[in-house]
Design a protein that fits this description.
The model has no long low-confidence stretch (mean pLDDT about 95). This protein has one domain: Globin-like, CATH 1.10.490.110. With about 140 residues, the protein is mostly helical. The radius of gyration is 14 Å and the shape is globular. Helices cover about 65% and strands about 0% of the residues.
Length: about 140
């Protein structure tokens, strides 16, 4: 199906929709808005803690549409932001509009979908730059 009449954009839209459908399925829901919120929150909480080159390398693995979501609101001159695991949880929960206690499971499920779609090791390379407590939450 053509969404825009531009094959590259249509392909990116289709890939992003497929990723979000996978995220929704991982949660046992059909709620694509929820899948989008938690995916966006996962990307932003991770992105803001990563060094610029690592964030850019991970973003290059994303479908074009989700890459735009990844970069939305990003200020590379202000990263990485050095925050602890409690702040990671607060940031994630606030953006995803979920309870703090839901963040570990939510992050794990989203990371699992991302891991299936990016090249081998790309996510691990990003996660390896994080402190162990945040790495455990984000993965």
């Amino acid at each position: 199906m053509s969404h825009t009449g531009v094959s590259n954009l249509d392909h990116s839209i289709d890939k992003a929709v497929a990723w979000l459908a996978e995220v929704a399925t991982a949660f046992g829901t059909d709620d694509k808005r929820f899948a989008y919120r938690v995916t966006r929150a996962w990307m932003h909480a991770l992105r803001d803690r990563l060094p610029v080159p690592v964030a850019a390398h991970l973003a290059a693995q994303l479908p074009e549409l989700l890459r735009g979501v990844f970069y939305d609101g990003w200020n590379p001159s202000r990263v990485p932001i050095k925050y602890d695991s409690a702040e990671y949880v607060r940031r994630f929960a606030r953006e995803a509009t979920i309870h703090d206690a839901e963040v570990p499971r939510t992050a794990t499920l989203v990371a699992g979908v991302v891991r299936r779609h990016v090249s081998h090791g790309a996510l691990d390379e990003a996660l390896d730059t994080l402190p162990a407590d945040i790495r455990q939450l984000a993965a």
